Amino acid sequence: xxxxxxxxxxxxxxxxxxxxxxxxxxxxxxxxxxxxxxxxxxxxxxxxxxxxxxxxxxxxxxxxxxxxxxxxxxxxxxxxxxxxxxxxxxxxxxxxxxxxxxxxxxxxxxxxxxxxxxxxxxxxxxxxxxxxxxxxxxxxxxxxxxxxxxxxxxxxxxxxxxxxxxxxxxxxxxxxxxxxxxxxxxxxxxxxxxxxxxxxxxxxxxxxxxxxxxxxxxxxxxxxxxxxxxxxxxxxxxxxxxxxxxxxxxxxxxxxxxxxxxxxxxxxxxxxxxxxxxxxxxxxxxxxxxxxxxxxxxxxxxxxxxxxxxx
Length: 311
Prior knowledge:
It contains 1 helix and 19 strands. The protein is mostly beta strands. The longest helix is centred in the C-terminal third of the chain and has 4 residues, at 263-266. The protein has an 8-stranded mixed beta barrel with strand order 1-15-18-19-3-4-5-16. It has a 3-stranded antiparallel sheet with strand order 12-14-17, with no helix packed on it. It has one domain. The two termini are 29 Å apart.
C-alpha cells in the first residue's frame, strides 16, 4: 500500500481511511474548471476529515514506535531515527479531525482522494491517563537502548532520540523488543514489539533538494519494492500565494514499485508551489505483553526530500 499526499499548507499525516465520504465537488479530469479547483473551493461548507485514531482506543494499554528517516535537504543528508514508548489508560477514545472540503473522496486501494483544508489544523477530543513505567528499555540484536521519560507537551512518553551518543543508525528489517521494570505500569516484556521495515529507495522521479520539478515529472513514482504489503508516499506543497488553506492529494496503492497519478490529481498542482516528498513504509500491529496488556506497535521507514519546487 502506498499513500500519496499533496498538500498546500497545513499538515495531514493521518490515514484518511476513515474520512467522511461525501464530496461536494468531485473532480472531473475532463472538466475545464479543474485547473481552478484549488483556488475556488467552497469554504461555506466544511466536511469533517478524520485522521487515524492511532493507539488511543479502548483496550490498548501501551504504544511502541520505532522509526528511521533518510533525510535529504539543502542543509545536509542524514538519517534521523527514534524509539518511543507510552503507557496509559484510555478514558474516552480520541477522535482527531480537521475541517475542509472533500472534493473527491478516498475509496480505498489504488484510488486517490482530494480535499481542501481550512488551515485551522487538527483538533482532538478524548481523555487519556498517562503512567510511568520505571526503566524502559528497547533491544534490537545486541544493542539495548534505555528510553528517557519525557513529560513535555500533551503526550507523555519515554523516548530515545537518537538511539545513543555514538549516532547509531536504525536497523532496517530489525525486530525490536520492549522491557519495563514496573512503576505505575506493571513490569512487562514484549519479545517483538515492532519490526522496522526495509529502507525506502526512490528511483524516480529524480528529486533533488532545492531543485525544481514539473507536475508531469511527478506523474509516475518508482521505487524498490519490498515484501511489505503497504507503503505510503506523501507529497506536501505550500501554495506560493496562500498558506492558510491547504489542498491535499492522497493515493493508496500496493507496494509493487510503481504508481502513476491520475490526471485529476496532477491537474491540482501549480507552478511556484514548494514542498516536500516523503515515501514511508509503515507497519502497525497490536501485540500482547507478558503481563497481558495490549501494546499498539507501529514502525516507519521514511525517505524524505525537501524543499522541492514545481516549475
